[in-house]
Amino acid sequence: MQKTLTEKEAENFLEKAGFSVIKRAAITHSDQVKALTKTIDFPWAMKLGSTRVAHKAKIGGVILNIENSMAAQEAFDKLSKLEGFEEAIVQEMFSGEEAIIGIKKTPEFGHVILFGHGGTNVEKEKDVVFRVLPANKKEIKDMIKETKFYKILEEKGAPLEQIEKNISKIQDLVKKYPNIMELDINPLTISKDKAKVIDARIVMSE
Fold this sequence. Notes:
Elements: E1 2-4, H1 7-16, E2 24-27, H2 33-36, E3 44-49, E4 62-66, H3 69-80, E5 87-92, E6 97-106, E7 110-117, H4 121-125, E8 128-132, H5 137-145, H6 149-156, H7 160-176, E9 180-191, E10 194-197, E11 200-205
Antiparallel strand pairs: 1-11, 2-5, 3-4, 3-5, 6-7, 6-9, 7-8, 9-10, 9-11
């Protein structure tokens, strides 16, 4: 049997494992919106929280640049009406270059790690590179350089060491939790000297 963690569970799991995760909160009722304005500064991003919906953006489940409490209330009302709604995830906005890093357990090779251009570019660009684990430091550096995304990161002066560090952390995580079947961090947003987990999905075997 397999269990898909909620986004909240996946992000909490990664945070406990030492990943830098964006400041966030999960809410299930509209009357919780106002209270959050005291703990998370605007602008916000608000996302559909659902274990049944893999691609939230495709169904209007991601609302960005929410500037005030009225807009936040409207965003929650919209998300709560979507099919599959379980909760709304509220996050502080954090901009930068968006990468995807992840793991998939395959019958042929065991755990395989991936890196590429993330966010909504994943399906559009299909700019993703794979390596069979374990991967050494050189292999991790090489897989980043093999993507078209690498040129964008270089041009923007993005801290590549932050990406390498997060890929290494995922590799360590799989050693500790070999029952991870799938893990996607998309996006891992990279800005200046920081890289933050904005969205995560984890499937584990029980």
